[in-house]
Amino acid sequence: MNDRIEKLEQAILAKKHWLVVSHLNPDGDALGSTLAVKHILEQWNIEHTCLNLSQIPNKYQILPGIDQIYQPTNLDETFDAVIFVDAADRERIGIACEQCIKEDAFIINIDHHATNDQYGMINWVETEASATAEIIYQWVEYSNRIDWNSFLATSVYTGILTDTGGFRYSNTTPDVMRYASNLLEKGVQGHELADILLETTTLPALELLQRALTHLQVDGSIAWTQIDQHELNEANAVESDTAGIVNYARNLEGVDVGILFREVEPDVIKVSLRSRLETDVASIASYFGGGGHTRAAGCTIKGKLPQVVERVIKHVQKEQGRA
Fold first, then answer.
1. CATH number of this structure's domain 2-199
2. What are the pLDDT digits (tens) for 43-71?
3. Which GO terms describe its molecular function (predicted)?
4. What is d(CA 173, CA 175) in angstroms, rounded to the nearest whole number?
5. What gap in Å lies between CA 62 and CA 59, rounded to an integer?
């Protein structure tokens, strides 16, 4: 561990300015990990720019430094040193962010996805980690150059909290609970983060959920629902308002795989997959060009919504041995 951290830190210290990026439509781990790296670079007085292609969901405005994660709009600068966090492949950051990176850029890749394709010059990929933020926790703990502060601790805790579903998912290991306890001792307001990030919702999100539940279908151990563009617009909802809807399908008694199909633009369907115990949804997502984790994955498929639903359901049945 110490050799890996020394190599990582020497590489970072050798550059004057770093770009820090994560995947589009960021969740708590993407944002928490981005901010954690930002706070580390601040301690070292290293210039940095944090980018994300997507608009940051309002609930994350409580995080210190969140207003310094920018969208790449009108950014003329290109970067020769980039730290990717929580991105299984380079394409996940989006074309606009990719255009900010020079062809010969030095890439550091910190991630926990099993489908990560090791695209960095330095790759710290721990597929057993509950979150990318857990990897950063280990980095800080073992480093002789980084001190914990409330901003850094809150960022790391946010990533772990959200990617474990509030410490309820199967990736909640004894180590995760120890790390969370240590972060609470450092002053993290865990109850406030849980309330705002996991419990608080918006009226458009509830209206969207209401519409999604009217489409709910069940076939054996598979349950799924769908949202089209018209319904999204009618509810005045945004991308982040769809978060969590897939779990209503997965949480049904007797269901192992829950799926949400949502139309993001005409003939482009984003598919979110969750599983309970048996089915490897990362394998299913990978088949359609996506990726993720064994219990949570996703992909984007071109085609009409009914046809995409049929294709995915048939493939899930095949994976379960029912086709």
1. 3.90.1640.10
2. 999 999 999 999 999 999 999 999 999 99
3. nucleic acid binding
4. 5
5. 7
